[in-house]
């Protein structure tokens, strides 16, 4: 399986155009949060309409996963906590969003919401526990916007900026791969990285760059490789050979 991973597009239409243009080359496209941008002059409702249209276009070419990020929280959910409720509308186009899972003979992919309060956090905790019982020897992949703490994938150059709950959940459930974003600088600063290994788990964060093409990671599940691409160059590693932190 060929998987394209991007994150933190932040309503950059040229980058959304690029993802749409290449989507058909991959078996799966994953957007790991922050489709919207709270700093944009465009209203949240207009951003949502455009983001949903792009997700539908991408989904017409391949399977799409999109989890929420902190910039995507525009309403309150049934638990009375901030959430990206608008993403639910993308299900009509076949997009797999917060709370969904993909199951094949070889892989289980868990799509995690950004939590902004204890009730949503606890719901995510239960979601991970439920999926842990379903793994049954398959490769387990999480899609969650925040990287774990004390990891080069969450290093800004001056501090770690992450969700420490992720570190706890990784230690408890030991997924094979965690695909995240959130910390734009990590792949580009000294002490940071686009990948990390925590025990047996490999964590990826493609970072963010300006311009028409986003930073991206391509996973090849058959070859067991990951390739990171950016305007500063590219890097590739074997998943079996990723160095531990």
Keywords for this entry:
alpha/beta, 6-stranded mixed β-sheet, 25% strand, 14 strands, 245 residues, 21% helix, Purple Acid Phosphatase, chain A, domain 2
| Order of secondary-structure elements | EHEHEEEEEHEHEEEEEE
Which fold name fills CATH's third level, the topology? Answer: Purple Acid Phosphatase, chain A, domain 2
Q: Which architecture does the CATH hierarchy give at level 2?
A: 4-Layer Sandwich
Q: What is the CA-CA span between the terminal residues?
A: 27 Å
How would you portray this structure in words?
It is a single chain. This protein is an alpha/beta fold and 245 residues long. The protein has a single domain, classed as Metallo-dependent phosphatases (Purple Acid Phosphatase, chain A, domain 2, 4-Layer Sandwich). Helix content is 21%, strand content 25%. It is built from four helices and 14 strands. Strand 13 and strand 14 form a beta hairpin. It is globular. The two termini are 27 Å apart.
Layout of strands and helices, then pairs:
Blueprint: E1 2-6, H1 13-22, E2 28-32, H2 44-59, E3 63-67, E4 75-76, E5 82-83, E6 101-103, E7 107-111, H3 118-132, E8 139-143, H4 164-173, E9 177-180, E10 195-198, E11 201-205, E12 216-220, E13 225-230, E14 233-238
Parallel strand pairs: 1-2, 2-3, 7-8, 8-9, 9-11
Antiparallel strand pairs: 1-12, 4-5, 6-7, 10-11, 12-13, 13-14
Helix pairs in contact: 1-2
């Amino acid at each position: 399986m060929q998987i394209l991973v991007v994150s933190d597009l932040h309503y950059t239409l040229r980058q959304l155009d690029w993802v749409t243009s290449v989507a058909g080359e991959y078996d799966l496209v994953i957007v790991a949060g922050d489709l919207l941008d709270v700093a944009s002059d465009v209203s949240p409702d207009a951003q949502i309409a455009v983001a949903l249209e792009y997700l539908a276009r991408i989904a017409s070419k391949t399977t799409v996963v999109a989890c929420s990020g902190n910039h995507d929280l525009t309403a309150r959910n049934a638990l009375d906590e901030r959430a990206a409720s608008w993403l639910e509308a993308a299900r009509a186009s076949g997009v797999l969003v917060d709370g969904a899972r993909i199951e094949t003979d070889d892989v289980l992919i868990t799509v995690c919401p950004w939590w902004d309060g204890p009730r949503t956090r606890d719901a995510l905790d239960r979601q991970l526990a439920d999926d842990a019982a379903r793994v049954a020897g398959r490769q387990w992949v999480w899609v969650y916007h925040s990287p774990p703490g004390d990891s080069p994938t969450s290093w800004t150059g001056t501090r770690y900026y992450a969700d420490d709950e992720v570190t706890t959940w990784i230690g408890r459930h030991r997924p094979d791969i965690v695909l995240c974003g959130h910390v734009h600088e990590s792949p580009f600063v000294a002490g940071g990285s686009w990948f990390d290994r925590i025990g047996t788990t490999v964590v990826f964060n493609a970072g963010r760059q300006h311009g028409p093409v986003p930073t991206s990671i391509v996973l090849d599940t058959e070859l067991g490789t990951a390739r990171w691409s950016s305007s500063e160059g590219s890097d590739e590693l074997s998943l079996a050979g990723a160095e531990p932190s």
